[in-house]
Structures are given as C-alpha cells and as structure tokens.
Write a structure and sequence with these properties.
Chain lengths: 143, 154
C-alpha cells in the first residue's frame, strides 16, 4: 500500500512539473505569438524580413527568422518557440533554428549563471554564438 | 483585426497543446527515473568519462545532472560540489563550458520535437559538439594555464 502511494506521488509530481513547464511556456509563448501574428499583418514584417535576409541567408533562413533568434537570446526558448509557431517556416528552417537555439539561448540569464562560477561573460557568449552559427551553417548544408 | 486575434489565439493554443503532449509525459518519466534513483546511477556510470578531460571523477556527477536537468539547478549543484569535493577551478570552467552548450537536453529537445524536428539529431549533435568543444578547451587549458591564474579573482 505504502509502495502504491509513493508511485502515485511520483506520477503526480512528474505530471505537475510537466504542467508547470507548459504553464511557464504559455505565459511567454502566447504574448509572443500574438505580437508576431499582428506584426505579420503589418508592413513591419517586410522590413524585418528584407533587412535581415542577406545575413540570415547564410544560415538558409528567411529574414523574419531573425525574430526567433532575437527572442530566444534576449528572452528565452519559450519566446523563440512562440515566434517559430507563428511564422510560416519549413521543417528544415525550424531544424536549423532548433540547433542554433539549443546552443545559444537566454543569454542574459544564463551568462549571469556562468559568471557566478567565474567564467567571463564575453568568453561564454562568444563560445555559444560561435557554436550556434557553425551548427546552423552545418545543418543548412547537410539537412 | 478580430480575425488576426482569432488566428493568434487558435494558433498559440494548438502549439501549447502539442508541446504539453510531449513535455508532460517526459517530465513524468524523468520523475520516475529520479525517484527510482536511476538518474543518480546513470550519473555515476557516466561520471568517470570526465577523466578524458583530466578532470576529477567527482566533477562528473554535477556534469551529468546538469546535462539532464538544467543549468539553473546544475549551477547550484556545481557550486555545492565545488565546495564539498574541492573541485579545482579548471574543472569548474570545463564543466561550465560543457553545460552552457548542453543542458536540460531532454526538455529543450522535447519542445522542438513538438514542431516535427528530429529530436535524436538535435540531442546527439548537441552532446557531441559540447563534448568535442570541452575536449579542445581541456587541451588548451592546462592545469597550470596562465588563463586560470587571471580568472581566479573573479
């Protein structure tokens, strides 16, 4: 009986922690989704798209994907996900963004953590941006 | 305007639903692994691998935990083990390099899988690249590296 209870506790805790992640994600993702969807119906999206197209082209991404990278690095992965979901991107483009964001996201918060351990901020950011760019180019070439 | 808002409401709801279907089961599995002590066993099993980097074996445990669970928790644990196990500063740097490139690998991968991305590819690429990068850093950062001396005061 005791055993059964702990099992239920484990399941409940796992469920709640999954729910909590979903909730935390929703709080950030929904506003970003709304903002990007509204942007999509204004000329601003074209300015962003055209402005970033040359740079993003190296990564095999459309210009508007810059929104995803900016959101992911200044806010967090959940904001990036909101932008990915609202833009019309192909699976390959999402995969490229996914590997780039895996290496490099939430720079403000996570760099602060790395600094606590004693690494310099510039060091950590350079490594992460470098890994993101190289992996993005590689995914674009090989996928 | 109303149609735009409806589009955003329906779209974001569907994305959240997709993510929830992957993240909730994943977190249940993680919780089971934690409670059965399997996570600790996995961490102990893999921790000797850090010898490749000329790191103390004790550094392996916080590394594996950080890879699986995440940086905020991982950082706390690194600081704690640094004090308890007296980890050398070099180990701390290498640990952090590995972890900034690869942490919370299951959770982060899962949210992209919800959009159809190949999770295995993301997961493997991230781990291999982090491992290779840390290896390069470990060769460059000799235990008596002057770089370490400079950073000690931070």
């Amino acid at each position: 009986m005791q055993n059964k209870c702990t099992w239920l506790d484990t399941l409940k805790r796992g469920f709640m922690s999954g729910l909590k992640i979903t909730w935390e994600l929703s709080k950030i993702m929904v506003p970003v989704y709304f903002i990007v969807t509204i942007l999509k119906h204004t000329p601003i999206i074209n300015w962003i798209s055209e402005g970033f197209a040359p740079l993003m082209g190296y990564l095999g991404l459309p210009g508007e994907a810059a929104i995803v990278l900016v959101m992911g690095n200044l806010v967090n992965l959940y904001a990036a996900i909101g932008a990915i979901a609202s833009l019309n991107l192909t699976l390959k483009e999402i995969s490229i963004l996914a590997i780039m964001l895996s290496f490099c996201h939430s720079l403000l918060v996570e760099t602060a953590l790395a600094k606590k351990i004693g690494l310099s901020a510039i060091n950590v950011i350079a490594v992460r941006v470098g890994l993101a760019v190289v992996s993005g180019i590689a995914f674009n070439l090989f996928l | 305007m109303l149609s735009i808002l409806t589009e955003a409401a329906v779209g974001s709801f569907n994305s959240i639903k997709q993510i929830a279907f992957i993240v909730i089961p994943l977190m249940i599995v993680m919780e089971i692994l934690k409670d059965l002590g399997i996570l600790d066993k996995i961490a102990r099993l893999f921790s000797p691998l850090v010898k490749i980097y000329d790191m103390k074996e004790e550094s392996g445990f916080p590394l594996v935990i950080g890879i699986v669970i995440g940086l905020s928790y991982g950082a706390g644990m690194i600081i704690q083990s640094a004090q308890e196990d007296k980890l050398p500063r070099r180990d701390l740097y290498l640990l952090t390099y590995f972890l900034v490139a690869a942490h919370a690998v299951f959770e982060d991968t899962a949210i992209f899988v919800a959009f159809g991305v190949n999770g295995m590819l993301l997961f493997i690429t991230r781990l291999i690249v982090a491992a290779l990068f840390t290896y390069l850093a470990s060769r460059w950062m000799k235990p008596e590296s002057p770089f370490l001396e400079n950073e000690v005061n931070n």
